[in-house]
Amino acid sequence: xxxxxxxxxxxxxxxxxxxxxxxxxxxxxxxxxxxxxxxxxxxxxxxxxxxxxxxxxxxxxxxxxxxxxxxxxxxxxxxxxxxxxxxxxxxxxxxxxxxxxxxxxxxxxxxxxxxxxxxxxxxxxxxxxxxxxxxxxxxxxxxxxxxxxxxxxxxxxxxxxxxxxxxxxxxxxxxxxxxxxxxxxxxxxxxxxxxxxxxxxxxxxxxxxxxxxxxxxxxxxxxxxxxxxxxxxxxxxxxxxxxxxxxxxxxxxxxxxxxxxxxxxxxxxxxxxxxxxxxxxxxxxxxxxxxxxxxxxxxxxxxxxxxxxxxxxxxxxxxxxxxxxxxxxxxxxxxxxxxxxxxxxxxxxxxxxxxxxxxxxxxxxxxxxxxxxxxxxxxxxxxxxxxxxxxxxxxxxxxxxxxxxxxxxxxxxxxxxxxxxxxxxxxxxxxxxxxxxxxxxxxxxxxxxxxxxxxxxxxxxxxxxxxxx
Amino acid sequence: xxxxxxxxxxxxxxxxxxxxxxxxxxxxxxxxxxxxxxxxxxxxxxxxxxxxxxxxxxxxxxxxxxxxxxxxxxxxxxxxxxxxxxxxxxxxxxxxxxxxxxxxxxxxxxxxxxxxxxxxxxxxxxxxxxxxxxxxxxxxxxxxxxxxxxxxxxxxxxxxxxxxxxxxxxxxxxxxxxxxxxxxxxxxxxxxxxxxxxxxxxxxxxxxxxxxxxxxxxxxxxxxxxxxxxxxxxxxxxxxxxxxxxxxxxxxxxxxxxxxxxxxxxxxxxxxxxxxxxxxxxxxxxxxxxxxxxxxxxxxxxxxxxxxxxxxxxxxxxxxxxxxxxxxxxxxxxxxxxxxxxxxxxxxxxxxxxxxxxxxxxxxxxx
Amino acid sequence: xxxxxxxxxxxxxxxxxxxxxxxxxxxxxxxxxxxxxxxxxxxxxxxxxxxxxxxxxxxxxxxxxxxxxxxxxxxxxxxxxxxxxxxxxxxxxxxxxxxxxxxxxxxxxxxxxxxxxxxxxxxxxxxxxxxxxxxxxxxxxxxxxxxxxxxxxxxxxxxxxxxxxxxxxxxxxxxxxxxxxxxxxxxxxxxxxxxxxxxxxxxxxxxxxxxxxxxxxxxxxxxxxxxxxxxxxxxxxxxxxxxxxxxxxxxxxxxxxxxxxxxxxxxxxxxxxxxxxxxxxxxxxxxxxxxxxxxxxxxxxxxxxxxxxxxxxxxxxxxxxxxxxxxxxxxxxxxxxxxxxxxxxxxxxxxxxxxxxxxxxxxxxxxxxxxxxxx
Lengths: 469, 367, 375
Known about the structure:
The structure holds 3 protein chains of 3 kinds.
Chain A: H1 5-12, E1 18-25, E2 27-34, H2 40-54, H3 60-66, E3 73-74, H4 79-88, E4 90-94, E5 100-104, H5 133-143, E6 149-156, E7 162-169, H6 175-186, H7 196-203, E8 215-217, H8 220-228, E9 232-236, E10 242-245, H9 263-292, H10 300-310, H11 317-337, H12 340-360, H13 366-379, H14 386-403, H15 405-421, E11 423-424, E12 427-428
Helix pairs in contact in A: 5-8, 9-11, 9-13, 9-14, 11-12, 11-13, 11-14, 14-15
Chain B: E1 6-7, H1 8-20, H2 27-35, H3 39-64, H4 71-78, H5 81-113, H6 120-137, H7 139-167, H8 181-190, E2 208-209, H9 215-240, H10 250-255, H11 268-298, H12 307-316, H13 325-366
Parallel strand pairs in B: 1-2
Chain C: H1 2-23, E1 32-42, E2 48-55, E3 68-75, H2 78-89, E4 92-94, E5 100-103, H3 105-110, H4 114-122, E6 131-135, H5 139-144, H6 146-149, H7 153-162, H8 175-181, E7 188-198, E8 212-223, E9 226-231, H9 233-240, E10 250-255, E11 258-273, E12 279-289, E13 301-302, H10 311-335, H11 342-350, H12 354-358, E14 366-374
Helix pairs in contact in C: 9-10
């Protein structure tokens, strides 16, 4: 396949970082590269120096054979592929007859492997994924030294042409699910994929967008752990977040360090996470509906405290609680966007000025602030679903304020029905609880010691459920 | 089809929730009014009959395994279409009435016990919205919800029960059969409307996924449910004596003595609210069945959510706005008890035969 | 068009929320006068005087502590009186947290208060487990003694009768139990009588402040909601011997020149109908020496630990127990009330009959046996 140099250079000549070098070594060669994407030393070592020593060459094939110093040397099949190589940092060498070879001279720019800030562990590996897909695959490969580790490479995005790698373990992962995922990724029609979270939206089968339907991790050990359970890992170039599929709600309760700690401790902390999430969503709602409708439930001494606190408050219990929750959400949002140095002072302002002063000024009641704060903190035990749970908390609180206990019961049931009906890639979202899969409860909230986990989870379809076989 | 799939375990748990939901509202006081402290015997007799019918129905499910025939297909193939339509109409009336009775009892509980007043429509609409939402998600989602909440509801019921059970002197139930055995049996017949919760199984027969056992899990949950209901009735009449017929909200009254109720706060109301979930699950299941009845009367499988059928179900829910529940029940007992008994207690006994006939006919057609 | 549809849906949702929000009417806690306890006295005109201890919230800065005030209103019936509380406090009365119902002396001695108990029994918010009792003097004055206790009078009575009294007195702490006793079979039951007992102790900070505690050792007997008789401490002791759930009765006996206190630690009571219309009652008491923290204290009342109790003391205790028990049985027969469920025992055997319900207590002959053992 001929690639016209004129056509190619017409596309790129206007770019500031376009570099052209003409070399005569028997035949006239033209080497082009993008200065910003190439490593000068590599261009010199893998292209220019060998060409200087080639001496007399008769064809571009001979040049290709003699450029032995470069590891990635190939002939791009068409203009499209040549342009992709070129933009990725390859140096292209054209002869006079519109033949072309590309030599890998990519520069390595990016951060080094470090402990990811989103999933710190006390004990366990500290390596985290980086933005470079090649490094990320290496991190997986380092842990999976088996020929069964398979990668399907794809490019997604009309303009970004982002490299996507679908990784799985053959013989464990159900092939039909891999095919389904690959087909979904191939059918993505968009101009650009900037992060793996873009793809997560496309992989959500029911397109519900309320709860996260695709897991993500920054740690290769977690990704491998999930792949060993029959899941698929999807690495997207430019994103340190690796997606895992299929995803269960209970995964959000499993912290990275859980498998490196004592299983009894893990069970306790998971139970705490579970209780705190339920309390976080329901506490503000219950506080409001108990005040407005069923104060008889509140223990007398606490009721008197509430009465003492609320007597002078200008808001109704519902608006007071909604205000507290919204203020808490604003604080969280501001804290996220602030530089970490300012973040501390922001927390102080939030805690002292908004909390204490609002109570002192008689604007908010102390019990409401306390319940709002307790509920807000509790949500962070489920990092993946914090935002959606925070939204649901507002809705349930609102319904509780207007309908009382009936509202709490009905809205909770509606949420549960919604969650129960969710099923992606033949995996029920609430498994192993609804439907109940007793074998999988060994690593849901309670966790049995790792040596006793002899079977892979049944919730996730797999081809080999024996961990030892 | 897949959305309505249900496993035997899910069915068993859901059945237990249905047995527990609703029976602890007005029924104990009505029974106490009829036969005094022997009401628990009346409940026990009703459950004996329920148990026999359930066994036959489970037998039919076993025969139906692999055929995936629903109730209308079985009746169509074994009897005839007009009879199917007539039976479905009776089923629809039963479900509509039971939903109404359940909802009005709950309404009363909210307005009297929880002191929250609302008008009927505003109360029913959110419940119906939940039921229709669940309907669009399929029976499988309802069954899974039952599975998820089962433990919580059971804990709530036990928490409400244990303390009064320890406190009560069951000697107050002596002498046994004081009201007269004839009267006790008659009461279990006249109050049969509240029992036979297994009738919902007719409408999910096509989706039941059988693995190993059919009888054991469902009969165990039936046993547990029956035991709980009998115990509650016994505790209720023993605890409240002459006052029992006046306390038409058994669960809320018994809650006062529960372990959750402290001297200074009605924590038992929270436990009560958790138990109320089982009532709403029951309402949701019955609304699902009523909707399915309409589908089977029309004879066309509704592709998506059918607004007309939903509207008809909704209209029937406004009945208590015009007739009081007590009036409704009096009329039902007078006129409806015979046709209701037909589908509640006679049809299950015939189901194995009908299913086998339908299955044979289907297989002959295929050959 | 799709924009119109969207706007339509939003409007529909807003309207639905508004309708639902407007239709659910609850009882906002701030609009309610939370009643902790109620005292009922007789009014000269045949009505009642109701004293309510109502929670009175603090000023917002001091958020912890029980603040209450007493409110007194009159009404022809209990319902009217409770409604009148709203007039005085400006808030609708709430009985959901009411823990105690106290009947004033004049009221319970002269009035049939069946409608009062029926009102509370049928009131869903009112807890049937709330304490009901009688008091010495008027309930109004009794509630005003709260200051002397330095705490809410209602909570003090509830704590006293529900928790403290459990082991050291015979208590009837539930409205339900009382209401049932007044309407079933022989229709007799009892209520504890509480009284304010002034003490000589003084508060060092406020020497003029009256101090005291709540006494609850006496019992008032009622039949069909009418006052019958007051049982003094000794009759209550006699009654408690028949009740298997209570223990801790003490007897004082003499060993040579030393006074010994013997305490009941366990009790086995059998009340069996003999089939001839009477009862065979066996009371087996297990006793030990009363214990104090200090052993071998010098003085007339000696606390002993593990020493064996001589037979002579056991016999003396049996005699004393028989005496108080027989006194109680005699009182039952004399005033015709049934606190030991004699009628109920026969009902369980024979079923209900009017003749059984009307049978006077004197027609139940009792053969009493008292045995005392050392633990």
